[in-house]
Specification:
The chain has one domain: 2-Layer Sandwich (Alpha-Beta Plaits), CATH 3.30.70. Helix content is 28%, strand content 36%. The chain has two helices and four strands. A four-stranded antiparallel sheet has the order 2-3-1-4.
Length: 107
């Protein structure tokens, strides 16, 4: 899942969103495999009046019946500009070729 958050969110709100995402996947019986923080990037076109977004990419395993609920939840969050969930054909290759940053979730 790639998620684009509003660019001017305070760090504590962004970290809370990150922790919420991790907790939600686990509560749905899933497992977070990898997290890659891309940070703030310019958008090709404005989304909801923003020309930048803060990107985080999550790789996770989740029962397929829970994906729709995850989509519904993140579609309702005001902090989220856009998100996309895709199924990966070769999950063993994730994170092997790109150096990435990680974000700590506050407990």
């Amino acid at each position: 899942m790639m998620i684009a958050l509003k660019p001017l969110l305070p760090d504590d709100v962004r970290k809370a969103m990150h922790k919420d995402m991790l907790d939600q996947i686990v509560s749905f019986g899933g497992e977070v495999v990898d997290t890659d923080v891309w940070g703030k990037r310019y958008l090709t076109f404005d989304i909801k009046g923003h020309n930048e977004a803060y990107y985080i990419v999550y790789s996770f395993k989740l029962p397929s019946d829970k994906v729709a609920e995850l989509r519904r939840m993140y579609g309702l969050k005001q902090e989220v500009l856009r998100f996309s969930i895709v199924q990966v054909e070769h999950p063993e290759l994730i994170g092997k070729s790109i150096k990435k940053k990680e974000m700590e979730a506050e407990a």
